[in-house]
Amino acid sequence: MLAKRIIPCLDIKDGQTVKGVNFVNIRNVGDPVELGALYAEQGADELVFLDITATHEGRKTFVDLVKRIAREINIPFTVGGGISELEDADKLLAAGADKISINSSAVRNPQLIDDLARNFGSQFVVVAIDARKKPDHWAVTVNGGRIETDKELFSWAKEAESRGAGEILFTSMDHDGTKNGFANEELAHLSESLSIPIIASGGAGNMEHFVDVFTKGKADAGLAASIFHFREIAIPDLKSYLRQQGIVVR
Questions:
Q1: What are the angstrom distances between the C-alpha of 233 and each of 148, 174, 195?
Q2: Which residue among 11, 45, 176, 220 is the active-site one?
Q3: Per residue in 106-118, is it b (16+ CB within 10 Å) or e — as a string?
Q4: pLDDT tens by residue, the chain, 250 residues
Q5: Cα(104)–Cα(143) distance, rounded to whole angstroms?
Q6: CA 201, CA 213: separation in Å to the nearest integer?
Q7: Global confidence as pTM
Q8: Do residues 225 and 44 make contact, with C-beta atoms less than 8 angstroms apart?
């Protein structure tokens, strides 16, 4: 079994790490570089930094922040938010990011996945998918879950892989922020139908949820935010618990 990865996610707004519930009641949780360095020290395998208000004007600020992160942090990190063309990705990778994550821009322009994979390599390209359960399918959403599209989770993930995505980061909008566990059934289906790694996001509330996501959900990595930011679970404790449950972690 490949070692499972634990990935803290840091949402960035105006240069600070923030956390809200369903995108409201946003509160500040600290400096992203300091938090990221702390998580790296505690044994996080990777980090994800998302520029949640990535307007064109904010892009330069984010590039400067990525340079700071690259100087201070010694584990791989992915950056996302507002990447809609090759030039955006080029600037972030040149600033020191290891991977870039695209979401809404890929849904609107699937060719972007091909272009990024061709120019930078599949290993740099993470396609993030936010989806919500409907009566007969999982609808892919954009703009932070605010707008539903006509794309369906499993077929869109398959298309993203065929276009060159190196990983899929799946967030269940129904589970996000609930702390009731991940969407394991859907994650298992993704893992079984694709050959690229699946990162699970949305719903982490306790250590058992990580055991479930790696066993029942067959995910390659578990991503979470608030449980780490608000010190509800410490990464060394989580890894120790996973090892006790027979799950291979680094």
A1: 33, 22, 31
A2: 11
A3: bbeebebbebbbe
A4: 689 999 999 999 888 898 765 555 678 888 999 999 999 999 999 999 999 876 555 666 789 999 999 999 999 999 999 899 999 999 999 999 999 999 999 999 999 999 999 999 999 999 999 999 999 999 999 988 889 999 999 999 999 999 999 999 999 999 988 899 999 999 999 999 999 999 999 999 999 999 999 999 999 999 999 999 999 999 999 999 999 999 999 9
A5: 6
A6: 10
A7: 0.95
A8: no
Q: Quick one: CA dihedral 122, 114, 60, 34, positive or negative?
A: negative
The token pair that represents 143 in the structure block: 């703009």
Residue at 185: amino acid letter: E
Residue with tokens 């360095």: 37
**Known active-site residue 11:** yes
Active site residue 130: yes
Type of residue found at 95 = A
Digit-coded pLDDT (tens) for 38-96? 999 999 999 999 998 765 556 667 899 999 999 999 999 999 998 999 999 999 999 99
Of 51, 88, 130, 220, the catalytic one is 130
Strand ranges for 81-124 from DSSP E: 99-102
Phi then psi dihedrals of residue 45, to 5 deg? -85, -35
Which residue type, as a one-letter code, is found at position 206? N
